[in-house]
Write a structure and sequence with these properties.
Blueprint (H helix, E strand, L loop, with lengths): L1 H13 L3 H18 L4 H4 L3 E6 L2 H17 L4 E6 L2 H7 L7 E4 L5 H11 L3 E5 L5 H9 L4 E6 L11 H11 L4 E4 L2 H9 L6 E3 L4 H11 L4 H7 L12 E8 L1 H13 L8 E7 L4 H10 L3 E3 H5 L9 E3 L6 H4 L5 E4 L11 H5 L4 E3 L7 H9 L2 E3 L3 H13 L1 H16 L4 H12 L5
Helix pairs in contact: 1-2, 4-20, 6-7, 12-18
């Protein structure tokens, strides 16, 4: 009953939702792609299928894919997404032989999908498990791994006897579960799930550590790679990056920065990276910060005067911009939930954000360890900035805690990849 209702719901969604229409169009292309895949029975090639709900979960799969391909370059890699946000951003992923949509979990559709993919093994990120998908894989005796696994014990599903039994049945179809940390392992064990469970860490830590390593050098050298002038920063500057920001984050930070105008502001340079840098958004920021300039003004080669502050009016640069920072405010905490804090933590930076971190396990962990400060308003931001500017030892201590949190978790991508390859009869 549930699957037909899902089909109806998705059909109705296509009438009003661009994302739903993209998914419907993508599914048509998916079947054509899968029918055209070469037979692995004839070539005797191994094929790995990696599945992620969306873009964020796929970032957890990338380092595993990269290690598997480095060990066994002949591997065929199939990547599937449920959400258009993942598919649209990654449909040209270089290491994949095919990037497709996962169909709705009907028995016939999922059976056909699995038979066309012909996976030698499957790796799924976090939680996106589907009953008929797992049954089809089980019927083929396909090793199936869940990585960076998390479990929401507060969900309605787990809160009922029937839900708990269904949960145990679904997870019981897995070959191996790699959890996102010891606290997640406890949740799985308390739920009575019988599949083998290994306590690991978020595989994004490996990717972050690698990217941090590639962004080493002097601040002005890194600035030049982003199109900024070679002399934009002085040795006395304290650079605050506001990453993935929304209006409430920006208003609090800008008001606090203006209060520092006659005291410490000369040392503070602000780089704001909006989550959605549309024209109206960045123009609003320019009005609030007259002594600022858009990043694109430098990249266009204009002879632009050095600004006090920079507004980033494009996407895809945040990770490198964190390499310029001394301190960071991560956006989203005043709204539906804070965005990723692991990237600035990987650089060893003290972090502040709004208080909505309940669904962000990394933010909660960093806060508990003392590397992340929760702020409620501009007064809190002002006090935090004063501490960061006037107490370099406090800033250094918090940064070291953040750095340790990420770098103590590295290495699990390789470990997981080795177990996946072992299931194929290969070794690294």
């Amino acid at each position: 009953m549930a699957v037909p209702l899902l089909h109806i719901a998705f059909f109705l969604a296509t009438l009003v939702s661009k994302k739903a229409r993209l998914r419907r169009q993508g599914l048509k292309a998916t079947w054509q792609t899968l029918v055209g895949l070469p037979s692995l029975h004839e070539s005797k090639t191994k094929r790995l299928w990696f599945h992620a709900a969306s873009m964020g979960e796929f970032e957890q799969l990338k380092p595993i894919i990269e290690h598997c391909k480095s060990v066994l370059p002949s591997l065929h890699i199939i990547v599937s997404f449920f959400s258009p946000s993942g598919y649209e951003h990654q449909h040209q992923y270089a290491l994949a032989d095919a990037v497709v949509y996962l169909p709705l979990d009907g028995k016939r559709a999922m059976g056909r999908f699995v038979n066309l993919v012909q996976p030698s093994a499957v790796v799924i990120a976090r939680y996106d498990l589907w009953w008929n998908m797992l049954l089809a894989l089980k019927s083929r005796s396909t090793p199936t791994f869940l990585v960076c696994a998390t479990l929401n014990n507060e969900s309605l599903l787990i809160g009922t006897l029937l839900g708990r039994e269904y949960l145990r049945a679904v997870y019981g179809l897995l070959t191996q579960i790699f959890t996102a940390g010891s606290s997640e392992t406890v949740k799985f064990e308390q739920s009575g799930i019988t599949a083998p469970i290994t306590t690991s860490a978020d595989t994004r830590f490996d990717r972050i550590a690698s990217q941090v390593s590639s962004n080493q050098g002097s601040r002005n050298d890194i600035a030049q790679t982003l199109g900024l002038p070679a002399t934009i920063f002085s040795d006395d500057d304290c650079v605050l990056v506001v990453g993935s920001s929304w209006k409430p984050d920006e208003d609090c930070v800008i008001e606090a920065v203006k209060r520092l105008e006659h005291t410490l502001r000369e040392r503070l340079k602000l780089i704001i990276v909006p989550h959605e840098p549309n024209e109206a958004h960045v123009r609003r920021l320019k009005e609030l910060l007259p002594e600022s300039e858009f990043l694109s003004a430098f990249q266009d080669g204009n002879d632009t005067q050095l600004p006090k502050h920079c507004i980033v009016d494009s996407i895809g640069k945040l990770l490198k911009l964190y390499a310029l920072a001394d301190i960071v405010v991560v956006g989203g905490g005043f709204g539906s939930g804070v965005h990723s804090v692991t990237e600035p933590a990987g650089y060893g930076l003290p972090i502040a954000c709004g208080g909505n971190i309940g669904r962000a396990r990394d933010a909660e962990a960093l806060h508990a360890k003392g590397a992340l400060t929760l702020v409620r308003n501009s007064d809190d931001v002002f006090q935090w900035l004063q501490i960061m500017l006037q107490e370099p030892e406090t800033r250094k201590k918090q940064g070291l805690i953040a750095h340790r949190y990420v770098h103590e978790g590295i290495g699990w991508s390789r470990t997981i990849a080795e177990q996946v390859l072992a299931a194929l009869g290969e070794s690294s």
